[in-house]
């Protein structure tokens, strides 16, 4: 019998998929995988219903022209410099294949979203993680000196993520400036994962593209912005002149993103912007963040409040993912986002993009767990 390749054997089940499977099997409230409880906005669903049966065949691999135009208007770029992908994940995969040379090193900030490392490996490169340290009083901190020290002659790219998953960090202008200066000094690409770009609770995130459009690729997600994570419509805003070569790479995977959904997103993006959807979502998520964070703090949990994203990280000495799952609450240990040991063990990521009722139920179950222990 022929054998599977080592890379296939090394591929693990996604921590998100595994957590959702276990949560469903055990009837746990799923604060693990980040997908919203609410239905997508009606104007998006109506646009999709109108497109199915009318727009059902392939689009060009670079994307539906109307969607590229809508994205060009959103980002203030030529539509020719925008690539539509089957989700942000495929955008990131396309960039790994197109940008990272064999043996190249990609600097990532750990804890990091789970696909960055394996995607670099599939491209024959590797991720070099720089840890974000957790200071118990201050929360997560970016150590710019550590990033600079990690650069070697093989470094080819900086992979940034702001707002950052799982920590919720939003990098400051000064931090983004320093990272861009580092990329310029060493002639690195910047891959900027900005899928939570409209989801922030303090200062608006700064994109490195604003400072270095010539070397920055911005990865975005209709699923995250429009609350439809299963639609698999994402995009990459590219430096001028590079999108058509990237389209040549991404067409080899899914050829094009789903056509009727591209139509619907093209319709919905301007409606979302003009109708104030993103501000309404921020308000609604800020309220749910308060519910979950306040409830956890009342249970003696230390909460590291996020500047953006729909995740918070939290810590209590006796907590573990297994103990929480036993209590009926699924969460993801931040250690699962790391290739080395975290300086503070036992930190959990909890998603608050769930219903108020589910957040209340999760808090009730955690309180019951504590009561059972103390008796
Ligand atoms: N971005 C989401 C999270 O971090 C889920 C990603 C996924 O399941 N592919 O939970």
TrEMBL record:
Molecular functions per Gene Ontology: succinyldiaminopimelate transaminase activity
Cofactor(s) the protein requires to work: pyridoxal 5'-phosphate
Residues annotated as transmembrane: none
Top class in the EC scheme: transferase
InterPro entries: Aminotransferase_I/II_large (IPR004839), Kynurenine-oxoglutarate_AT (IPR051326), PyrdxlP-dep_Trfase (IPR015424), PyrdxlP-dep_Trfase_major (IPR015421), PyrdxlP-dep_Trfase_small (IPR015422)
Keywords: Aminotransferase, Pyridoxal phosphate, Transferase
EC number(s) stated in the UniProt entry for this protein: 2.6.1.17
Pfam family of the protein (one): Aminotran_1_2
UniProt domain Aminotransferase class I/classII large: residue ranges: 29-366
Residue ranges of coiled coil: none
Full protein name: N-succinyldiaminopimelate aminotransferase
